[in-house]
Write a structure and sequence with these properties.
261 residues, alpha+beta
C-alpha cells in the first residue's frame, strides 16, 4: 500500500513539473518574421548635405540590439543579440539589410517595433554604437572622414511602419518583414529640402564635423565633439534617427539625455 501511495505521489509530481515546464515556454506558431534595417538612398547613394558638401558613405555601421516586433495585445517576437550592421552595403537598388529572422512565430499583427542602439562589446569599433566612414567634397576640398559615436538609445515605434506597404502582418504559415529605418539626413541636413525645413534647421551639417579636420582627414569620436557649442543640437538629432519607414519612434534611455533642452 505504501508503495502504491508513493508511486501515485511521484506520478502527480511528475505531471505538475511537466505542466509547469510547458507553461513557461513561449507559444510556437508556423510563421517567420524577417528583421531588416534600412539607411535609405541617402546612405547607399550619398547626397548633398545642407551646406553643399557632397557626402558619400563607405560604411555606416549601427549596432542594433534585441529588435522586438510586437503589438499592444501581448504578441511579441524578439530577435535576441547584437547586430553590427552596415547600412551602406549594396548599390542604390539594394533591398534593406537583413539583420536576422525568427521562425515558428504565432500568426498575428506585429506592426509595432522597438530596438536599441548600444555600444559594441568587441571588434574593431568596440565601445561605439554608430560608425560612419566616407568622403565629403565641396569645391576644391576633399575630406576623408570617420565619425565614431557612442550614444546609446532605445527606440519604440508604436505606430508601426509608415510607407508604401504594410509590414508586420503575419499569416499562419506565412512570412512578414519588419523594418528599422535610419534617417541620417536628420544629422547632416539635405540641400534639396527647403532651408527653413526642420531637416535643415534641426541638423548640424557636415561643417560641424569638418571643424576637426586636419590635412584632409577627419577622425573624430563623440567624446571630442562634446567641446562644441552645438553639441546639444547634435544630441537632439539622435532622437529622430530611428524610424519605421516614415513612422516616428519614441526615443528613451539616451546616454546624453542631460544635453537635451
Amino acid at each position: 500500500m505504501k508503495k502504491q501511495i508513493f508511486l501515485s505521489i511521484l506520478l502527480i509530481a511528475s505531471l505538475f513539473i511537466f505542466s509547469a515546464s510547458s507553461c513557461s515556454k513561449a507559444p510556437q506558431g508556423s510563421g517567420t518574421i524577417i528583421f531588416t534595417a534600412n539607411g535609405e538612398d541617402f546612405v547607399r547613394e550619398g547626397f548633398v548635405e545642407k551646406n553643399g558638401w557632397h557626402v558619400s558613405f563607405d560604411k555606416v555601421y549601427v549596432n542594433i540590439v534585441n529588435p522586438t516586433a510586437y503589438n499592444s495585445e501581448g504578441l511579441k517576437s524578439i530577435l535576441k543579440g547584437a547586430f553590427f550592421t552596415d547600412l551602406a552595403e549594396g548599390d542604390k537598388d539594394a533591398d534593406p539589410i537583413v539583420v536576422g529572422k525568427n521562425e515558428k512565430v504565432p500568426h498575428g499583427n506585429y506592426q509595432s517595433l522597438k530596438f536599441s542602439i548600444k555600444r559594441a562589446k568587441s571588434g574593431e569599433f568596440k565601445g561605439y554604437s554608430i560608425v560612419i566612414t566616407g568622403t565629403a567634397k565641396k569645391g576644391e576640398e576633399t575630406v576623408n572622414f570617420t565619425i565614431k559615436l557612442d550614444e546609446e538609445i532605445d527606440f519604440d515605434g508604436k505606430e508601426g511602419f509608415v510607407g508604401d506597404e504594410v509590414k508586420g502582418l503575419l499569416a499562419e504559415n506565412g512570412e512578414t518583414t519588419v523594418e528599422m529605418t535610419f534617417h541620417f539626413d536628420h544629422i547632416f541636413g539635405d540641400r534639396e529640402a527647403a532651408a527653413d525645413s526642420h531637416i535643415n534647421t534641426g541638423s548640424v551639417g557636415f561643417d560641424f564635423f569638418n571643424a576637426y579636420t586636419k590635412d584632409g582627414v577627419l577622425d573624430i569620436s563623440q567624446d571630442k565633439l562634446k567641446e562644441d557649442a552645438d553639441y546639444p543640437k547634435l544630441v537632439k538629432t539622435f532622437t529622430s534617427l530611428g524610424h519605421l519607414g516614415e513612422g516616428h519612434c519614441e526615443a528613451s534611455n539616451m546616454t546624453s539625455a542631460s544635453y537635451l533642452k
